[in-house]
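Data availability (excerpt). The following record was deposited with the supplementary files.
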Amino acid sequence: IGFDLAKCVVKRIDQFTAATTFGMYLQTGFGKPHPLVGNLDGCFGISLTGNIRIIVKPLIETKEISEINKCKNLEIGGIVDYHGEKENWIIK
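Predicted structure:
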């Protein structure tokens, strides 16, 4: 994936690890986290560079905001450019 993108991925993972819950991470605003819809419903896109996003899914029972805020475990779904009509997975 190249050195620069790998460095961004490590930075985000370090930020996830530093936060005690996903809600705490969301409050930081790092990477402009945003919930996704469609085939990525239940996941969040978090900016790495330009159009490239890391996709994470909180491991919770429901999509209630209280559960999202308390979530301590994430599944990393991959790295993708999903802008426009494309869905170009770099790592899946």
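Summary of structural features: Residues 3-18 form the longest helix (16 residues).
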